[in-house]
Design brief:
With 220 residues, the chain is mainly α. It has one domain (11-214). Helix content is 68%, strand content 2%. The chain contains nine helices and two strands. A hairpin with a 2-residue loop joins strand 1 (59-60) and strand 2. Helix 3 crosses helix 8. The longest helix has 31 residues, at 189-219. It is elongated and about 50 Å long. The N and C termini lie far apart (62 Å). This is DedA family protein. Its main location: membrane.
Length: 220
C-alpha cells in the first residue's frame, strides 16, 4: 500500500490507500460523489484523470502502483455514476426539502444547493443533469434537487446516463492517452485537470453570461 499524500483531497492518496483494489475504490468514490451528500468532499475530476493515467503507467512520483484496467474503468465508471445519481434523485424525491433542511457544516452549505438550483432552472432539467457532471459540488447536489423538484425518474435516467458516460470516460481516456504519450505525466496531473475543467466550464459560463445579458436587456 502506498500513500503518497497526507491529504484526502489528493487523488494519489486514495489510489495509494486502495492499493490492489484501486479500480473498485475509484468506482466507490464515483458512486459516493454523485449519490451521497458527503461525496462533495471527495476528489472527482482529478481522481478520474489520475486513474486513467494509471491504466497506462505503473508509477507516480517515483512510487510504484499496480496498473488499473482501462475497460473496467470505462464500463464501471459510468455505471457507478448512474447508480449514484439515481440514488440521489430518489432521496430528493423521497425526502424533499427536508433533505436540505440542516444548518451549514463542513459537509453542507446551503449555497451549494442554491447553486445547483440555479443551474437546474437556467439550463432546464435535461441540460442541467449533463452539465452538472463537470462542475464539482453541483454534480453532488443537483441529483437530489432534480428529484425534489419533480423531474421524472425515467427522464432523469436517460440524461443521467449521457452525462455519466461523457464525464467518466472522457477523463479516463484523456488520462490514459496522456499517460502513454507524455513522459513524467504525474507532474502535469493537476494542470491537466485544470485545463479540462476550464474547457468544460467555458460553454457553461458563456450561457450564463448570455442569460444575464438578456435579463438586463429585457429589464430596460
Amino acid at each position: 500500500m502506498h500513500v503518497l499524500a497526507s491529504t484526502p483531497l489528493s487523488p494519489e492518496y486514495w489510489l495509494g490507500l486502495f492499493g490492489a483494489f484501486a479500480a473498485a475504490g475509484v468506482l466507490a468514490i464515483v458512486f459516493a460523489e454523485t449519490g451521497l451528500l458527503f461525496g462533495c468532499l471527495l476528489p472527482g475530476d482529478s481522481l478520474l484523470f489520475t486513474a486513467g493515467v494509471l491504466t497506462a503507467v505503473d508509477e507516480l512520483n517515483g512510487v510504484a502502483f499496480q496498473r488499473i484496467s482501462l475497460p473496467v474503468l470505462l464500463v464501471g465508471g459510468p455505471v457507478a455514476a448512474v447508480v449514484g445519481a439515481q440514488l440521489g434523485h430518489w432521496l430528493g424525491a423521497r425526502y424533499g426539502r427536508k433533505l436540505f433542511d440542516r444548518p451549514d457544516s463542513r459537509i453542507f452549505r446551503r449555497e451549494w444547493v442554491e447553486k445547483a438550483e440555479y443551474y437546474f432552472n437556467r439550463f432546464g432539467p435535461e441540460k442541467a443533469v449533463v452539465i452538472a457532471r463537470f462542475i464539482p459540488i453541483v454534480r453532488t447536489f443537483l441529483n437530489p434537487l432534480a428529484g425534489m423538484l419533480g423531474m421524472d425518474a425515467r427522464r432523469f435516467l436517460v440524461w443521467n446516463a449521457v452525462g455519466a458516460v461523457l464525464w467518466c470516460d472522457s477523463l479516463f481516456l484523456t488520462g490514459h492517452y496522456l499517460g502513454a504519450a507524455v513522459p513524467g505525466i504525474d507532474r502535469y496531473i493537476l494542470p491537466g485537470v485544470a485545463v479540462i475543467l476550464v474547457l468544460s466550464v467555458v460553454p457553461i459560463a458563456r450561457e450564463v453570461w448570455k442569460g444575464r445579458t438578456e435579463t438586463k436587456r429585457l429589464g430596460q
